Structures are given as C-alpha cells and as structure tokens.
Amino acid sequence: MRDPYKVLGVSKTASEAEIKKAFRTLAKKHHPDAHGDDPNAQKRFQEIGAAYGIVGDKEKRAKYDRGEIDEAGNPRGFDPRAHGAGGGFEGNPFGGGGGQNQHFRWSSRGGGGDTAEGFRAEDIFADLFGGLGGGGGRRRPQARKGDDLSIAVTVSFAEAANGGTRRITLPDGKAVDVRIPVGLKEGQQIRLRGQGMPGSHGGPNGDILLAVSVAPHPYFTRDGNNIRMDLPVTLKEAVLGGKVPVPTLDGSVSLNIPAGSNSGAVLRLKGKGIPAHSSSGGGESTGDLYVRLVISLPEKPDAALKSFAESWKADYDPRSKLR
Fold it and tell me: Which helix (H) or strand (E) holds 39?
C-alpha cells in the first residue's frame, strides 16, 4: 500500500480536521455506488479507507510517524503472508476484498463498537455518512426532511393582480386555502411549508411549491405594474369625441375620447393598473391602465355610412409619411 498521507493527498503535518475533510471528499468521490461495477473505483475506495484507518487514528498515526508500523498497520518487519493474512479486510466497512497487506478482525469490546486493533469503523462512517448512534457502533438513522412536491396552479388575471384566496387540493386529498399575493407574476412560486412528503426519523415534512401560471385575459395585457388594452371606438366617436365606458380591474369607468382621435392614439387612466404590492420592492405605486384606440367600422354594411363616404371629398393622404 502507498503512503497513507499521499493516498489522502495531505501533508504529514496535516491536522485531524484536514485529514477527515480529505477522507470525506475522496470517499464520496470514489464510492462504488457512484461508479457502477468499476473495479478500479472499488480498489481506490478501499485504499482510501485503509489510509484513513492509519492516519485517521491518533494512536496509529503516531506509531506510523515513528516508523513502528508500516502502511498496512503491521509492525515493521512483520510478514503478513507468514501469518495467513493474504490481503483484504475481514469486516472491511467498505465491503468486499481489498486493502493491500491489511487484515482486520472485528470484535465487540464492552459496547464500544467494532474495533480492529484500535481502528474504529464508526470513525469511517461518521465522516462518510454524517454521524453514528449509541452503543454497538451502529449508525443512528439521521433525521431527514421530507421531499418537496411541485404542483402547477393556474389563476385568473384578476386574481394575480388583486390577490385573494384559492382553495387547493393537495396530493393526499386534503384541501387547503392558499393566499394569492397581490401583484402575482407569471411563474412565481408559492411555498406551502410543511405540506410536502413526511420526513423520516423525526425530520420535518417537506414543502409544496406551487408553480403559478396566470391565465391570459381576453383584452388586458400586463406591462410591469401597468395594464394595456385595445379599445374599439366607432368612427363617429373618433371624429366627434365623447365619453365611452372602459373596463378596468375594479369595474367599468368613463373615458373621455378627444374629438378627432386616430386609431393608435393612447390614453391613460391613472391608478387603474396593478395595485401596489410589497413584492415589487422599492415602494412602487399602483400602475396605470393604457388604452389604445382602435377605430372599428360596423360589421354589417351601413348604407348611410357608405353614402357619406362616397360623397366625402377627402383632402388628406394618410400614407404620405410612408413615401
């Protein structure tokens, strides 16, 4: 076996914490479960464990540094073949054969855990798996948080803008009321803490993440905190002007159309956009509603309008700017 310090990639002056960190990193990287049936990974994994069995044990490390034992943990001058130790761990915590010229026999000593001539298996598992429990050297299951669940939810444009409460049925059949925050945006998540999968070994439940989609509105579109819409107006309303009803999130309001308005003209209704909300940050105010006028002719033929158009002597060219 190679020098255990070199196997772990640490110097001979490395602290216990540095050695443990190096071992943990290498053991996770070369764990056989992550490499399928690769025999080289298995061999490397066992070599890492054997190296840590020497320099990860304070007493053995001191003996190794003084030259009293070799890389396999045997006294200097000891021939393992003469003693029937043909390589490989018996009771190797990593399983399988391995460990060049290293032979461990496991025994229970006074409830202090499995030992191998001073080598404690739980020292390996504590670093690799995150801690052990009481007597016998067996691992105590770690508390684990339950898995999070993701649920897709669609809300209306008005719900997203004004907020509200939506009843959601969870995967376990339980119905819960979910608060929809004011100003909710497309793709925003709502977290329901503790409503996910159960935890294990005393761990907390996971969460439910609601991935929210906002259903398209028939005529509103969102632009930040503002709302935009196209408003059809008659030819008469555009020419003569007048007041027309306009839908908003809060109901219909009256909008004054200036005389001589063209299609494409944009009018603003202040404060009729998305309500102010804390998630916007920066103290944003309520948005506005921007209304774009679109002149709309009758769907059915209108004889009077046709007669007027035929007798009207237009003295302007609306396409002059295109030349």
Answer: helix 39-55
The tens digit of pLDDT for each residue in 254-291 reads 999 999 999 999 999 999 999 988 654 555 789 999 99
CA-closest candidate to residue 264, choices 231, 235, 236: 231
Strands in the chain per DSSP E: 107-108, 114-116, 119-120, 149-155, 164-169, 175-180, 189-192, 208-214, 221-223, 226-233, 242-248, 251-257, 266-269, 289-295
Residue 169 φ/ψ, nearest 5 degrees: -95, 120
Helices and strands (DSSP H and E) totals, the chain: 8, 14
Measured from the Cβ of residue 302, the count of other Cβ atoms closer than 10 Å reads 13
Contacts 24+ apart (CB under 8 A), 237-245: 237/261, 238/262, 238/263, 238/293, 238/295
β partners of residue 150 = 209
pTM above 0.70, yes or no: no
Tens digits of residue pLDDT in 64-86: 998 888 887 778 765 555 555 44
Q: Which residues of 38-58 are buried (b: 16+ CB within 10 A; e: fewer)?
A: eeebbbbbbbbbbbbbbbbbe
Task: Provide the CA 166 distance to its chain's centre, in angstroms.
Answer: 24
For the chain, how far is it from start to end, CA to CA, in angstroms? Answer: 87
CA 9, 46, 130, 35 torsion-angle sign: positive
Quote the tokens at residue 286: 């309520």
Residue whose tokens read 């054997």: 50
